[in-house]
Structure formats: C-alpha cells, structure tokens
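Pipeline run #58 for the internal structure catalog. This entry was flagged by the ingest filter as a single-chain record with no existing model, so it goes straight to prediction. Upstream metadata was stripped on purpose; only the residue string is passed forward. Reviewer on rotation: M.T. Logging verbosity set to normal.
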Amino acid sequence: MRAALKAQSGTLFVNKGEAEILCNREIESSREASELLRQMGAHRAIVTDGPNESALCDKNGTIVVIPPKVVAKTTTGAGDVFLATFVGAEIASTMALREIMEASAKAAADHVMKDTQ
C-alpha cells in the first residue's frame, strides 16, 4: 500500500484500520482517513469503516456515503464486495462517483446480511 502512495497514481482501497496503520495514528472517520491518504500521495483514496461512513477523496474533493443499516451475519468479504462493485461500476462508467460509492456500500451491506452456513 505504501507503494501506491509513493506512485501518486493509484487508487487506494483500505478500511479505516488499515488507514490508521498507513498514517501511523488514530483517525476519527473514513472522511479524515481518505483525506490524509490523499495528502500522503494517493491519487484517490477510498476508505470503508463497516457500518459507518465510507469516503472517497480525490483531486475533486471528498464524497462520503453512509451504508444502509443492517444486521450483519458475517463481515467476511464485505470489503471485497465493495471493491468489486466499485470497479465494475466505474468500468461500466454509467454512474457518477457518488452513485458508485452508494451502490458499493449497498452491495457490501447486502452481502453481510447473507447467511453463510
């Protein structure tokens, strides 16, 4: 992940805990984390935080979305679902970034409600 920061051309997808490790400090929110990672060199930083806000920061500013409230049965794979939804929607380029973030948060929320047994 540090290589992505140094390259200053990549999109960094991390959770808040990973952002705190990269920033070497406690961070209040995904918004703050995405903005700090952008300041550290990320071209674009996307930070998730489970049931709390997810944020994207790039040269145009910061987008914050709140995932739907759900009862989680598992959290395994939630970040993967968020990432896959985001990348797929961005490649299709039929939605604005805010809509992509909202769709990604919803997909992750839907995933955590699934009974995996």
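catalog note: The mean pLDDT is 90.
catalog note: The chain has one domain: 2-112.
status: ready for reviewer M.T.
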